[in-house]
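Quick one: structure for this chain?
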Amino acid sequence: MRTFSVALLATTALFSQPAFAAEAADAAAEGEAIVVFGKGETRQVQEVKADDIAQLLPGTSPIRAIEKLPSVNIQSADAFGNYEWSTRVTIRSFNQNQLGFNFDGIPLGDMTYGNHNGLHISRVISPENIGSVRVTQGAGSLGTQSTNNLGGTVETFSMDPLDRLAVQANATYGSENTMRGFVRVNLGSSEGLRGFVSYGYGSTDKYRGNGKQDQHMVNAKLVAPLGAATLDAWFSYSDRREQDYQDLSLNMLSRLGYDWDNTAPDYARAILYADIGANRGETGLPVTNAGAGTVYPGGVTSADDAYYDAAGLRKDTVAAIGIKSPLGDNIEVSLRGYYHHNRGMGLWATPYVASPNGTPMSMRTTEYEIDRGGLFGKLTWKTDLNTLTVGGWYETNTFNQARRFYDFKSRTEAGRSFREYPTNPFFTQWEFDFDTKTLQYFVEDRIDLGQVKINLGWKGFRVTNEATAVVKASFPEGKIDATDWFQPHIGAVLSVTDKAELFAGFTQATRAFASATTTGPFSTNQAGFNGILGTLKPETSDTYEVGARYNDSRFNGVVGVYLVNFHDRLLSAASGPSIVGSPSVLQNVGSVRAVGFEAVGDLKLGGGLGLFASYSYTDATYRNDVYNLSGALLAAIKGKTVVDSPKHMLRGELTYDNGTVFGRIGANYMSKRYFTYTNDLLPGDGLGYIPGRTVVDASLGYRITDRIEVQVNATNLFDKQYIGTINSGGTGNSGDRQTLLTAAPQQFFVTLKAGF
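Got it. Here's what it folds into:
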């Protein structure tokens, strides 16, 4: 059990939302839904509203808000879901690289660590400024700005500014010296300009080991009427600095325990490990301290068991401006342009490269810089029967990626902080410029026949990827593209009654290639790239789904089944420890089949009580073994379960709100998950999977007045010890790997919100 540290940070402010108590009482009386189940849609769609997000731990990533929805698997090593090295999202067995993410229509890429074409949603918007988060399980909507949404789309929308002067302030304190403050100032009038600007800062100590994770965030939004048209603009700036946890293996967990981490601030111990690694011939460095011996102390068996320190540093600026205007009575046009700049680094203390002064370690970085801009828009024409929409998207993205090394001061003093951007590298191992151009269009027709609604359409795109070496290495140069001008969708909704409906749909989707040395076709060597050029196929999916919905004032729910045929799946097999940075082995492995069942419901019990539950069953298997170009078997995976694809997920929440007191308790169950492609049993451990687990979170709040409320959140309430993230350091074909992260223990937080 962790120490329960709770305090209140008092604050006074104006509040930009309606009064707490009045708002809650009105919602309870009217039976407002805070999760919407996509009435009228031809596919599975659920939307989580701001009122639901507000009861989560303040500062929690918007991604955690959708965790309770069916077939959505969220992994993270921290309570907030913000620690990017650990954060993973899968939907219906599709991993994060195969999902689409956007914010107010702006594409965010695949939101992975070291993203080459976007950024994580938690670096775009503070949770308090979110209006809703929408999840489309399946292939996603035609009009989404994404070329990776094979298996679903997650769309986040900002709240609209109010038409009056208002200010909101929140203050949070809790376990691991967590401190977070947020303030938002809103200005506007009912007939003129409306806007807000906000600032948020959050900081928390690591729950194991030494270090801190924090973020500064600025958001601003403007909405302006221009006659019949509406102009809106967005700006955000984020500066995030997070020190990493040590990646673990099953063997390390058994030898070293769940609390094992990097050695920082014990620099001397890190030097000792590096000396021993050199003496044993593990790191390839010359012997400079033979007296250190060849035996690691305290259960350590490898130089990779513990590094000195590691971190991720990210600075992002996002700006957008858009306009929406009617063109006559039946036509509407919208257009939005955006720009995103990112400077980022991943830092590791590596024992495999020495500093020039003889110190048997150096600081290794993977450095990123993104400059991308784009334009998207659509034209919608409505008639009595039809709603016809035609739209397009264009983006140009210049991405620079480099691997550099920086020295430590001496054997006794590091002289560098992992929370600061280093300068003066002594070696650049490689550096590449990537140029990516994306052109996408879509056509969609919604036909309303009364009881029956039909949705027809398609999208198409061409994405061109080009890599040019600035500092040449083993990674390849060259050009590759993915082109698919026709990706169809057809769906229908049948209204059985005014409360019940049936839906069915089919969608075909294609995923473009990635432009980076750390993923996709450019992550192999030149010979490997030349070998796959012209033969490598982009991934595609065919999704079939049918279901039924029911909506009334007391109960809302949906059930559905789906079949996904996933073709030409690309698997990137890690060829060594993450710290070494070995080229991956890219595998075009044939097809995957996934079948599943989903059910979710929201029941209002009366008296302020509510019950929410969701269940999903997924059976996803590889359909082909993996062979190399010579026909030799690389991995026998036919019939094996897809990595990180639990068969069963069950979530439940009991909520209460009488306008003054409110609370929630929720349980999250996930069955076992495999972390190797072959699902193999491991010698000695006998375990080739991560066991299932149930985790419980809870919150309790009290509205002191209609302007002030206090909220207590408990995460991992019963202090469950479990693996939070798998495959943090890549996925191997078989065997144990240093690719696991433990989850946060029991933690408590208190938040004060005030305003008028």
